[in-house]
Design a protein that fits this description.
Shape: elongated
Number of helices: 9
Number of strands: 0
Order of helices and strands: HHHHHHHHH
Distance between the termini: 51 Å
Radius of gyration: 19 Å
Helix content: over 70%
Length: 191
């Protein structure tokens, strides 16, 4: 088995286990068993659990970024492109495996004790905020809209995870519609 395939299997296994159970609850032996690799191979790829956690967060970042961008790309019109973020959330929240934002979960469980995890979470959130800012700018909205929309998306993720229902996506989308229309009307932009 090629090293890249081994690495992918380990990261996929760790991601699934960490996301379902939490970072502290999952040991390297459980990841080894789930990935179907030897402990020696596991530690050969990831000498520490911290390195593996960062690799999982990198995977989650790519999944989020690619997923949101793909959903937005299927939509035409400035307002619709901004609202597509919440449509992506709605699809994600109904997934049986949904357990909230992996970055919020990691930060909550490890962030205070692990500066690398805290930095990975901050970098991920900043990346999303820049993406929303680009969409808002393309729509002709002022700079205040993007952080408002990002906060709605973040709050929806947390609310959906805690409530155990997907309703937060529709609620956030409805609030986003009001904010977007007000921002576009105030700037004279048309969607």
């Amino acid at each position: 088995m090629a090293d890249e395939e081994v690495r992918r299997r380990i990261v996929d296994a760790a991601d699934g286990l960490y996301y379902a159970k939490g970072f502290h609850a999952v040991g390297m032996d459980e990841i080894r068993d789930s990935a179907g690799v030897s402990l020696r191979k596991l530690y050969g790829e990831f000498p520490s659990k911290d390195e593996l956690i960062l690799a999982v967060l990198d995977k989650r970042h790519r999944m989020w970024t690619d997923g949101v961008a793909a959903r937005v790309a299927t939509t035409e019109g400035a307002e619709a492109r901004l609202l597509a973020i919440y449509d992506y959330l709605a699809d994600w929240f109904v997934d049986d495996a949904f357990r909230g934002c992996g970055f919020i979960n990691a930060f909550g469980e490890l962030g205070a004790a692990d500066p690398q995890v805290a930095e990975a979470a901050r970098t991920h959130k900043e990346s999303f905020q820049r993406y929303v800012a680009d969409l808002a700018r393309e729509a002709g909205a002022g700079p205040a809209l993007a952080p408002q929309l990002a906060i709605l998306a973040e709050g929806a993720q947390t609310t959906a995870a805690i409530a155990g229902t997907p309703d937060a996506a529709a609620d956030a989308r409805a609030a986003a519609e009001v904010l977007i229309r007000a921002a576009l009307a105030g700037s004279g932009a048309r969607s």
